[in-house]
Design goal:
Blueprint: H1 32-35, E1 36-38, E2 52-55, E3 61-65, E4 68-72, E5 85-89, E6 92-95, H2 101-114, H3 128-132, H4 149-155, H5 167-177, H6 184-192, E7 242-248, H7 253-256, E8 271-274, E9 290-293, E10 302-303, E11 307-309
Length: 311
């Protein structure tokens, strides 16, 4: 029988594989195949699971990132990206696309209809910002500086990535859908594959593979850059929007972290964001660049995607 523990708000929001699971994790006790619908007959050799699926919770297409070693970090990047290390990750599914406005709308409608906040982060109420907002996610957050009706027209079409999303909002959506936010390591492997490439599409910068540097002056549809897909077929890993990860930020995490299924520290405030954005210069758009924001911060250049653990 699964046991539960009292959460203090200081522990990692996602617990890696092991006997420390509480039984409250999304999908706990269910087979992965209970949670997904196969979209291909092609199977992963290691797990026997389909390589591409549709998640039954929110309908998102997902691809399988196989278990194994990948190169995390860079010996030439900023200090917080160093050193390059071989890291082992268990297999996982990741959303093919960032969560778009249309998909996120279903979550907002659920919250508004039920007032069910069971998937909210336990310590969310400690934030003055989210407390004032009554924990209620919204589609067009007019409280975000500079975000108004005109900007929402440019950023709010159904297939654009949802923005003005706090880390708490992203965390709650993931739980509602029966998934989790990716660890920073999961995000990086999904973006660059196992060969240590700098960009999802290869080693050379190619401005036609992403939306960055104010090229479009707004977000673009989540499927607009098929040429920028990662080795696993994941779209928009660079540019368009920064993406929330589950980890707390540790600038020395790549030096001190575990080399097997690593996750950020158990304390600290800022949460990791990865991938760059439509209004950030190209130097931020690399698979090794690490960034962070406070969990209550929301901007029109930050969104998210989710993962499904297989183990």
């Amino acid at each position: 029988m699964a046991t539960t523990t009292i959460k203090t708000g200081l522990e990692p929001a996602f617990t890696p594989r092991g006997d420390t699971r509480t039984g409250n994790e999304p999908g706990f006790g269910q087979s992965v195949l209970d949670l997904v619908e196969p979209l291909t007959d092609d199977l992963d050799v290691g797990t026997g699971l389909p390589l591409r699926v549709r998640h039954r919770g929110d309908g998102a297409e997902m691809v399988l990132v196989p278990a194994g070693v990948f190169v995390r970090g860079s010996d030439q990047g900023e200090p917080n990206q160093q050193p390059a290390r071989d890291i082992w990750l268990d297999a996982f599914y990741i959303d093919v696309y960032p969560i778009c406005n249309e998909r996120y709308q279903g979550f907002v409608e659920f919250i508004n209809a039920t007032d069910d906040h069971r998937n909210c982060y336990p310590a969310e109420h400690l934030s003055s910002v989210t407390r004032e907002l009554n924990h209620t996610p919204r589609m067009c957050a007019h409280w975000v500086r500079g975000y108004n009706g005109e900007r929402h027209k440019r950023l709010g079409t159904p297939n654009q990535p949802v923005v003005t999303i706090t880390w708490y909002d992203a965390y709650a959506y993931a739980g509602w859908a029966g998934k989790s936010l990716p660890t920073e390591a999961q995000w990086e492997k999904a973006a660059r594959g196992a060969d240590g490439r700098l960009f999802p599409w290869g080693e050379r910068w190619d401005p036609t593979c992403l939306n960055a540097g104010l090229r479009a002056n707004c977000t673009t549809a989540v499927d607009a850059f098929p040429q920028g897909r990662s080795p696993y077929g994941v779209y928009d890993m660079l540019g368009n929007v920064w993406e929330w990860c589950i980890d707390r930020y540790d600038r020395r995490g790549y030096v001190n972290g575990s080399n097997r299924n690593p996750i950020g520290p158990a304390s600290g405030l800022d949460r990791v964001c990865r991938g760059g954005a439509w209004n950030y210069i190209r130097e931020y758009a690399a698979a090794t660049v690490r960034h962070a924001f406070g969990p209550s911060e929301a901007y029109d250049f930050v969104g998210f995607r989710t993962v499904l653990s297989i183990t």
